[in-house]
Amino acid sequence: MFFHRDRPGSARLAIRRQAWLRLVLGLVCMTLWPGLVGCGPMMFAVGVAPGDQRLEQTTVLSDGGFRNDRIAIVDISGMMLNAEQRGLLQQGENPVSVLHEKLQKAAADPRVKAVVLRLNTPGGTVTATDAMYREVQRFRRETGKPVIALMMDLATSGGYYVACASDHIVAYPTSITGSVGVLLQTVSFKPALERWGIELEALTSGKNKTAGSMFETLTDEHREVLQRMVDDFYQGFVDVVRSARPTMDDETFALVTDGRVFTGSDAAALGLVDETGDLYDAFARAKSKVNLDRADLVIYHRPLRYAGSPYSPTTMAGPHEPPVDRTQINLLQLNVAGLPGFADAPVGLYYLWRPDMQ
Q: Which NCBIfam families match (predicted)?
């Protein structure tokens, strides 16, 4: 940086202040960054835009040998929404898009012989769930490569729905699964607004246009309209489970589809999953499906994402799950978070298990 003798002193002072401000901000960012993005190897990238963000591949387990065939881990984590999930100081990902991208990469690699579909999700919207289920089905149908579902902490509701698209389901004994059903959460502020003397009026094209509105009381007719939708989507969920579990007796089937959740051990005993195990068991099951004695276990991730083990996070994910429920009411602001249809998630019907919302 050059300073001319004829530059006014105030201009030189302003430039120096800007330089000091950049230095201070840089030090603050370097100090806070580990707490914002979590512990682990750090890289500092300088640029004005992301470069090539195509998926990279890292081998995280190997049976040894030269140029082994591969088993690919494909993750589904957090809320399943067809929307970008942003994080603090991070570029978010669209879960449906990421699943499609990873399956396409596994399909295009002739050395990938099977996929471990690793699930850690409470579910998501009805349509996003169904789209992901269809993506897994299409992958199996078009490639002939088997898919082994592996349930981690949670594979509930929509998570179980997607697992039904696989050839085989492995659950940790401590996994939580089940919650076969549909959730449509509504809330009405009308009684409170009336108590405050606030009157809202909506002009609509039909008497059922405001069904489920937070500013209306749910009438019997509204409830019937919405319940019909819930029942329709529930039947679709039940059909998916029956297709995946055709030999389950009717009594057990009625039990596992009534909305309750199960541990992985209980789910295996009931036939909701095929076996209990862990990541290594899922890897072994995938190899046995394609008659491999040895293979490399690979994981897909974005550039600059560190993948040091099979348990490494692989997406630049934001807060897939809504934050802790909170309600803030000011004179000029009504901010309700943590409820579907408000700030954190799109309005709609959900294949979702969240006890705090039910």
A: SppA_dom
